[in-house]
């Protein structure tokens, strides 16, 4: 499998993740404003918002990655890739916080019923 296919699949995966999180954010926001501003809907909205923002950041970085890395000298590319890996790891930790909030919202909503 060549690198071009991996990048294409990564881009497609990023776009699909973006769309799913956007749909989830819209559904949770509608639930929050229509059904009485419950704690579960608020936690879900915050969690989806965090995950949506991280998806936007990682998707835009993925689109801008190749032109930026192509302009840098080789030594700077190594530093850039290291910095990118560290920032994406920290972003993934923030994404886990968003996922935790969504899970807390589901657990909170299931206890009320």
Shape: elongated
Mean pLDDT: 80
Strand content: under 5%
- In which range does the helix fraction lie? over 70%
Biggest β-sheet description: none
Rounded radius of gyration (Å): 18 Å
Order of helices and strands: HHH
Distance linking N and C termini: 49 Å
Using DSSP, what is the number of strands? 0
| Quaternary status | single chain
Structural class: mainly alpha
Number of helices: 3
Low-confidence stretches: none
Number of domains: 1
Q: How is this structure best summarized?
A:
The protein has helices at residues 3-34, 39-71, 74-112. The chain is mostly helical.
Task: Label this structure with key terms.
113 residues; mainly alpha; 3 helices; 92% helix
Topology diagram in text:
Layout (H helix, E strand, L loop, with lengths): L2 H32 L4 H33 L2 H39 L1
Helix pairs in contact: 1-2, 2-3
Structure, described:
The protein is mainly alpha-helical and 113 residues long. The protein has one domain (3-112). Helix content is 92%, strand content 0%. It contains three helices and no strands. It has helices at residues 3-34, 39-71, 74-112. Helix 2 (39-71) runs antiparallel to helix 3. The longest helix has 39 residues, at 74-112. The protein is elongated. It starts with a helix and ends with a helix. The model has no long low-confidence stretch (mean pLDDT 80).
